[in-house]
Amino acid sequence: MVYQDPKLLLFALNSNLPLAEKISEATGVPLGHVSSRQFSDGEIQVNIEESVRGHDIYIIQSTSFPVNDHLWELLIMIDACKRASANTVNVVMPYFGYARADRTAKPHEPITAKLVANMLVKAGIDRILTLDLHTVQVQGFFDVPADNLFTVPIFADYYREKGLLGDEVVVVAPKNSGIKRARSLAEYLEAPIAIVDYQEEKERDANSGYLIGDVAGKKAILIDDILTEGITFGNAAIVLSRYGVGDIFACASHGLFLPGSKERLEAAHIKEILVTDSVKSDNDKPESVKFLTTAPLIADAIVRIHEGRPVSPLFNYDKAQG
Q1: How many CA atoms lie within 13 A of 105 on its CB side?
Q2: Which helix (H) or strand (E) segment is 210 a member of?
Q3: Which residues contact 316 (CB under 8 A, 6 or more apart)?
Q4: 163 Rama sector, left if φ>0, alpha if ψ -120 to 50, beta otherwise
Q5: Which of 46, 207, 281, 294 is buried most deeply by CB count within 10 Å?
Q6: What CATH code is carried by the domain that includes residue 121?
Q7: Has residue 106 been placed in a domain?
């Protein structure tokens, strides 16, 4: 794919250059020239090294570790584009940090997801494109258009090609808050669902875990949105093993792989763990981890947005590509 409109410019900041390069290749639009550096006191300086006047800018930046550095780098880049007379400034954020802080769970807590949305809008963005928000309600925190693409169809395509579908498979929500995501994947795979729940939900101790559904002798696919320390998948795998499950697979939209996750996931004996490339993590990972790229999906969305065409067909990604 080679996109010819010179008004469309892609820029990549430092959170996930490999994904940005894949998006650039998928669209045929080269990455623009920008430099970013951090001074010894922690201040960030961004310089756009080409004209953006009158152009539609798409800035590719996840707010992954180090979260606050990447967030501030993005805000500064947005300000630079606005001051350089860009026509529109669109943020492509494959992983939206702080999305889990989407409500006041107990007295005096902030709603940080709304704060970050306000900061991005105040800085001057015209639109945000993201993947698998922790909760879809975060879309409503933005006072500009917000497109939330789903990765479940990408996982479904992969599992269908491997023959993991039908009644021999069960899709498992590793916690009761993930039922909707599990049901979505199960519909693609024409498979039943099961739920791992806990007597003490806040603790999620595997010893207090129990299963709702039937997994005996079946291949189980655990699904979650964010893989951080591997605790959710690890505990769920322990519970499943007590109920006579066969092979265990797992998939997550965003793989952060914080320290300690490698050991937990290896101990869980999960046969294969799928994550997307929405986050670039340099931490150690189990050998069972496999990455699926989101670049074609994001690239298609960027072109559709730029041309004023609907993005909704991409919510069923496999069908859109067919």
Answers
A1: 5
A2: strand 209-212
A3: 153
A4: left
A5: 294
A6: 3.40.50.2020
A7: yes
